[in-house]
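Lab intake sheet, docking and co-folding queue.

SAMPLE TYPE: protein with bound small molecule
LIGAND NAME: lauric acid
LIGAND FORMAT: SMILES
REQUESTED OUTPUT: full 3D complex as structure tokens
PRIORITY: normal
SUBMITTED BY: R.K., bench team

The fields below were copied directly from the construct record.
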Amino acid sequence: MVSLRFPFLFSQPQKPPVTGRSRRSFSTIACSVAAAAAGATVVASQDRSNPFLRDALNFFRSNFNRSSPVWGSLSLAADPSPVNDPKTGVAFPSVLGDSRRLLGIGLRRKCVMGLKNIDVYAFGVYADNGDINKVLGEKYGKASASEIEKKDLIDDLMESDICMTVRLQIVYGRLSIRSVRSAFAESVGNRLQKFGGSDNKELLQRFTSQFKDEFKIPRGSIIDLSRERDNVLHTTIDGKEVGSIQSNLLCRSILDLYIGDDPFDRRAKEDIEFNLASCIQK
Ligand SMILES: CCCCCCCCCCCC(=O)O
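RESULT FIELD (auto-filled):
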């Protein structure tokens, strides 16, 4: 049975929002400690904005989690309930389709007009369980999770023919499809240049032009960016087809935003590394 760590709340019955920093932090700690004490499937969370809680969690992480996920762990096989991002309240299914398992979630924040950071979307990174075990199991199957070199593991995940989905759930309420196009043009354009040099305008244009004006992106919209077999990038918005493009460079560039060297949410990447290393079948 596989045990995964998610430093955030698993879906709970909806409670009225708790106001005030300390109350929220206290309930978060209490929730984690109570669950750990009970020895049950553990519910862990992280309040990124609270330094005390962050330090406490880091302490636990560095002393326990790295080698043995004694808390904040979950068997997906035993509990397929969705995973909630505590900051945005967004829920992610723990399995997409039949076999893509959730490896971690994160938050994309963006600075607007050089002034303030807004939460634009929460994201979840999924990878096909069968592919993970087939491709990564061969190479890393004999090593324990703590022995696996995480950088190699992530590079292999990005480079191999492993089906993956990055799910974006929009939390910002005033997003136009135009701003989606230009945000992709900037971030993906940057990565295309990083991996493929300057001559990739046509590829970028093909990708961004898929986001046609007819698509509306209200809060709650879901954009799925899926790498299918043979590096076909398949995009949907709220389940509707947006387009497919076969390009290793494009797939790599998209994945790099979330799990590359300079990811949007570093903490999410660490969780993904950890969970991936833990779920490779021995
Ligand atoms: C006002 C900010 C607008 C940002 C829109 C982002 C929408 C999706 C873009 C995905 C790629 C990225 O996060 O850069």
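REVIEWER NOTE: The chain has a mean pLDDT of 78.
SIGN-OFF: pending second check by T.M.
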